[in-house]
Amino acid sequence: MIVFEDVSHDYGGGPLFRDVSVRLEQGSFHFLTGPSGAGKSTFLKLCYGELLPSSGKVTLLNRDLREMTRDQLAETRERIGVVHQDCQFLDHLTVEQNVGLPLTATDRPLRESDVSDLLGWVGLGARADALPPTLSGGERQRAALARAIIGAPNVLLADEPTGNLDWEMSQRLMMLLIELNRMGTAVLIATHDLNLIRFAKAQVQARVMRISGRKLQLAGAEL
Amino acid sequence: MSARAISSLVVPGRGQSVWLVTLSSAAMAFLAVFALALSVTSARLAATWSDALAQTATVRISAPPEEMDSQTALVLDVLRTTPGIAEARVMVPEEQAALLEAWLGPDLPLDALPLPRLIELTETAEGPDRQGLRLRLAAEAPAAVYDDHTRWRRPLVQAATRLQSFALVSLVLIGAVTAAMIALAASAALSSNGQVIRVLRLVGARDRFIALAFVRRISRRALYGSAAGTAVAMLALLALPQAGSAVPVLAGLGFQGWTWALPLTIPPLTAILAWAASMATAFRVLRGVT
Ligand SMILES: Nc1ncnc2c1ncn2[C@@H]1O[C@H](COP(=O)(O)OP(=O)(O)OP(=O)(O)O)[C@@H](O)[C@H]1O
Ligand SMILES: [Mg+2]
Q1: Pocket lining: A47 vs ligand 1, CB cutoff 6 Å
Q2: I want to staple B245 with a disulfide (CB 3.0 to 4.6 A). Which of B48, B51, B229, B241 is the partner?
Q3: CA of A64 to the centre of ligand 1 (A)
């Protein structure tokens, strides 16, 4: 689904990571860890084409990121669900409308019952008509997760999706992602939360990648 | 909530650019109605003047009183044998007096004036060979002058035609300024909604969807604005004093009969213009935002 070949990235102040080669296959489950500022969010942005790599080749859903037209990139994003670290919403639309946006903005049919089911699952049933600015940090994260998965994406990328959540809600969301993964979605989660990784590893075959010292390493069984 | 309904909601409704579109469309539509009225009126004047004067002409005979009758007979002979003249009629002195009265007042002792004699001609549609007629008259009745009113007609018709071109140029300028204003407003709307564009991009919206969300809103505002401007201008035209009042040329400004339908095309045309201008701008701006 997502293939990195010798990818390096550099914002201008020296490379964040160098020569990263990795494949995220269909149905795979990955965690991405590393110290703050190591480049986890940057790595995810490369995975949905918000950034182009400084060097190397990124292939998203069988298309070379560099060669994609703007419409092809949009088409690719239609199949990639993203939970941003700073969950971005349209602040003048309700939570429900924001969650449905991946479908409505790509002219795909939207069933209102799907949206309310999903909102119920992430515990936002009562906040469906609220505006995003009135949500708490944790509520925003849950809404962002609901939006990322409403379109049944082939790939789900989540940047610290449980950063503001209590343990019980974190587990609940993780179960949602695990269910999604079991249906074939490739999942990649950037997180510091080792408990969460352990919890997931008990349910699925998850691999852990770590960015440190400008390298991406595959961590083994040490967790 | 349907996809189409959402797509008209994704751009926030507030913002100065929306007002810029509404106001400038209203103002431009107002001006366009007057330019259109000017164009219609001047076309009508040009047509009226050339029609009214085209098929009439006069022959003026200035001769000493004792030769007047013989010259008149000569002229009538020439006219009778000229193809293209339908009718030739000698005007009676009372008619001439009436014509002059309009210019000189009723109290003139006309009898004392050595007035030329006028023969009024009605020409057929093809008209006579004017140059040939002049030459024949010069040879056979040197006291007669053929006058087909071209001298009077030409500057009047020219003035009306020029007025009409001014009006048309104004319409083109108004259209161009409207398009420019709307393009400016569209580009302002897009750049002040960077967050909206970012979010839409994130969820996979194509440029076309994003552009349409802005374009629909802008064209709708342009339609409302220009409808208001057009309505006000048409009311203003209705309120102008109509023909027959003291200043005949000015009072003629306006529409008549079916031409009242012309200004009604301004709002839809503005909406189409707004659509095209904002669509082009949106695609250009979106290409620059990655
Ligand atoms: N647009 C940018 N321009 C320049 N530098 C940037 C930009 N975005 C991020 N950086 C820098 O790149 C480094 C990596 O940022 P990134 O957001 O990828 O880190 P992270 O691993 O996600 O950190 P955290 O765990 O705090 O979220 C940071 O030092 C950051 O300051
Ligand atoms: Mg980050």
Answers
A1: no
A2: B241
A3: 24
Name every chain B residue with its beta carbon within 8 A of the beta carbon of A140. Answer: none
Q: Which domains does chain A have, with CATH numbers?
A: 1-79+153-223 (3.40.50.300), 87-147 (no CATH)
Q: Best residue in A52, A88, A104, A115 to probe B by mutation, most B CBs within 10 Å?
A: A104
Q: How far apart are CA B266 and CA B243, in angstroms?
A: 25
Reference A39, options A1, A6, A8; nearest CA is A8
Query: pLDDT (tens digit, 9 = 90+) per residue, A200-214?
Result: 999 999 999 999 888
Cα angle for residues A86, A88, A94 (degrees, 5° grid): 135
- Global pTM value: 0.77
Give tens-digit pLDDT for A54-70. Answer: 999 999 999 999 999 99
Instruction: Give me the DSSP letters along chain B.
Output: --HHHHHTTSS-S-SHHHHHHHHHHHHHHHHHHHHHHHHHHHHHHHHHHHHHHHTEEEEEE---HHHHHHHHHHHHHHHHTSTTEEEEEEPPHHHHHHHHHHHH-TT--GGGS-PPEEEEEEE-SS---HHHHHHHHHHH-TTEEEE-SHHHHHHHHHHHHHHHHHHHHHHHHHHHHHHHHHHHHHHHHHHTTHHHHHHHHHTT--HHHHHHHHHHHHHHHHHHHHHHHHHHHHHHHHHSPPTTSS-HHHHT-S--GGGGGGGGGHHHHHHHHHHHHHHHHHHHHHHH--
Q: Are A81 and A153 in contact (CB under 8 A)?
A: yes
**Do residues A165 and A141 make contact, with C-beta atoms less than 8 angstroms apart?**
yes
Report the SS3 class of residue A10.
strand
Q: Is the pLDDT of residue B250 over 50?
A: no
What is the domain partition of chain B in residue ranges? 3-50+154-288, 63-142
Q: In this predicted complex, what is the ipTM?
A: 0.89
